[in-house]
Design goal:
This protein has 352 residues and is α/β, with parallel strands linked by helices. The chain contains eleven helices and 14 strands.
Length: 352
């Protein structure tokens, strides 16, 4: 059955793709984004235009109707703006909410910590309170693989302890999981946290490796390769991420009947609360990733080999057994195909 769904972060990478997918299958979608300047707002406006939202139609806290999708409207709004957020929930009575809006980026959190507490903590409590007071049937929200921090047990599992983060960004995402559990326990709100693993693909973020490397190689500039290239990432293609998110939205957690406080499982609860990893379950060496970009572009990259950066981890690898068992799904797009799709989009968007 079609739902009425609020998707926050729809001028962002994952939110943009999710809104399109939900609209294509017949849901009514309200998109929300603050359109901040963390990276070039022209890319954010480009995503909005792709979904029929013209930049000149935007006015803060006012709904703009899509010219392409009759069942899509968008509002420019900060999650910290509790008054207008509650008005939005009251007006629309959403069936489900998918909260993807956040201040992203590990390294940015080292120099701009308050951006993370304001957007990711204050903004998230406003989402939780709005869901609580407006009978939302399911809240799905973005967490991150960064919560695994100093954990070295591979592959990363949602059943592992994650109490040693190495960036404030990771802290904010782990905090979201704890806050969501409290609301699931106290108020019975079904909540599902999604730990995304290095998402890439068309319309991706300019602060991510694939975007940075592609731009530099095409411009003939050297690329910075941290930890001397000794990095692995569980790169996950955007279409795979979206398929997982949609299945999660459609399947609110019921609570784990086998959960016990004597041996508590971190990834579930007796409350309607669940955490999933969404990753490719196939870590790729950074140097192999760069080679695939070079092959697709037909150009070699000059490489600056540098030490690992503060807040970074040397490897990520997602255990997706729970996603497979509960949703019947595992991401599987090959890295080469995903890179080819991104570069084709990049050349088109930037007319290269």
């Amino acid at each position: 059955m079609a739902q009425k769904i609020l998707v926050t972060g729809t001028a962002g990478f994952i939110g943009f793709h999710l809104a399109k997918r939900l609209l294509d299958r017949g849901d009514e979608v309200v998109g929300l984004d603050s359109i901040n300047d963390y990276y070039d707002p022209r890319l954010k406006h480009g995503r909005l235009v792709e979904t029929g939202i013209a930049p000149d139609s935007l006015s803060y806290a006012t709904l703009a109707q899509s010219s392409r999708h009759p069942s899509y409207s968008f509002i420019q709004l900060n999650l910290e703006d509790r008054e207008h957020l509650f008005k939005l929930f009251s007006k629309h009575q959403f069936d489900s909410v998918c909260n993807l809006a956040a201040q992203a980026g590990v390294r940015y959190s080292l120099t701009n910590p308050y951006a993370y507490t304001e957007s990711n903590i204050t903004g998230f409590i406003n989402i939780l309170e709005a869901c609580r007071h407006h009978n939302v049937k399911h809240l799905a929200y973005a967490s991150s693989s960064s919560v695994y921090g100093l954990n070295e047990e591979m592959p990363f599992s949602t059943h592992h302890n994650v109490d040693h983060p190495v960036s404030l960004y990771a802290v904010s995402k782990k905090s979201n999981e704890l806050m969501a559990h409290t609301y699931s326990h106290l108020y019975g709100i079904p909540t599902t946290g999604l730990r995304f693993f290095t998402v890439y693909g068309p319309w991706g973020r300019p602060d991510m490796a694939l975007f940075i490397f592609t731009k530099a190689i095409l411009e003939g500039k050297p690329i910075d390769v941290y930890n001397n290239g000794n990095m692995q990432r569980d790169f996950t293609y955007i279409d795979d991420i979206i398929e997982g998110v949609v299945r999660v939205i459609d399947n609110p957690p019921q609570g784990n009947p086998d959960w016990t406080g004597k041996k508590p499982d971190p990834g579930s609860s007796c409350a309607p609360y669940k955490i999933y990893n969404i990753g490719n379950n196939n870590p790729v060496k950074l140097m192999d990733f760069i080679s695939a970009i070079e092959e697709t572009l037909g150009k070699q990259a000059a490489k600056n080999l540098l030490p690992i950066q503060p807040g970074d981890v040397p490897a990520t690898w997602a255990d997706v057994d729970d996603l497979m068992a509960d949703m019947g799904y595992k991401p599987n797009t090959p890295i080469k195909k995903g890179i080819e799709q991104f570069i084709a989009w990049y050349r088109t968007f930037y007319n290269i």
